[in-house]
Amino acid sequence: MDPINLKHEMDDLDYACFLDLIRKKSGLEIPAVRRPEVERSIHQLLSQINLIDVRELLGLINQDKRGNELLETLIGRITIGETYFFRNHSQFEALETTILPEIINRRRTNKQLRIWSAGCSTGEEPYSLAILLKKLLPDWSEWNIFILATDINRNALEKAQKREFGASSFRKETPPDIKQTYFATNGNKYILKPSIAEMVNFNYLNLVEDVYPSFLNNTTMMDLILCRNVFIYFKEETSQRIANALYDALGENGWLIVGHAEPSQTVFQKFRIHNFPGTIIYQKSEKGNHTPEITTSARVNRVSQKIEIRKNANRIMPGRIKNTIKAGNITQNVNQVNTLSPVDATGEMLNKDLQEADRLIRKVKMH
To answer: Do residues 269 and 205 share a domain?
Structure first.
């Protein structure tokens, strides 16, 4: 991209204003060494919207709707991270040999799995999980597998859903048979097979915002959450708040995997610590919960069971499987979201249950 001629150079105050807007929106703490990178992202955004004045851009960002979109675009440019298939051998080894087999054994009766890749970037992580599950479950087609993949970067989410990857998405840690087994080639691109891609559901979510856990965005009762190389961008106070929210988003005995460079273990003090070769992984522990929290959690479980019963009673016929359904504030594509596809005719009763479950979860978080 050609350099642009700014109306005036960005000074320290201008830059501090951009950092403050980014911090308030995303919680990101950007070190001083990244200033050239951030300024370059700002210049790219100016060029994209045909502006030459950074202060005019600041004024636009402070507007309501368009300003929020511009700020999200800027944050997206800053948060493009390195990722590749089966990144971190130690963690995927623990997943394959211990954690996923334990979850599968626990869920074999109802054959339902719920997994969340929080901070999924361009999709290599959640797709790696889908591939691993297909390897571990010979009868995977008989299971209700829900893999949620969220990120704050909308461009990354859009790229992930195209399921096209270059050579940089495959490194030494990536098992050698992956490309041949699960991808088709198109020139220098590797196209992920639809049978794997359809297992993953992508959605925008800002981990700093108080929008999870929630039945409305399907971030509850998770068996496994991966939130790797995300906490390193936050202050400890923000990290603690996110860790507590992820704890609440897990079901009983659910697992949390974070990156090696994440904050001290005090942030994850609610969790049980498990040492695996080359990595530490956390598991939800109910130890120390107060009686009101346990009682309310039981009520959440009952509402969850009620929702499952209602969904199972209203299976959508195969001929309508591509229809888009609406349940109150929820709109989901049936092909993409297994767990919300069956709803009653109007969606009103299901939506009422979702709102009741959300209310109970908020009550749990207050205790």
So the answer is: yes
User: 309-343, pLDDT tens digit by residue?
Assistant: 444 444 333 333 333 333 333 333 333 333 443 34
Q: At what angle do helices 348-366 and 236-249 cross, to 10 degrees?
A: 130
Structure letter (DSSP) for residue 64: S
Record the pTM: 0.75
CA torsion angle for 158, 162, 168, 169 (degrees, to 10)? 90
Name 201's bridge partners: 148
Quick one: 107 and 65 in the same domain?
no
Same domain for 241 and 107: yes
Can you tell me which residue has the tokens 């501090």? 16
CATH of the domain at 177: 3.40.50.150
Half-sphere exposure of 318 (CA within 13 A, CB side): 0
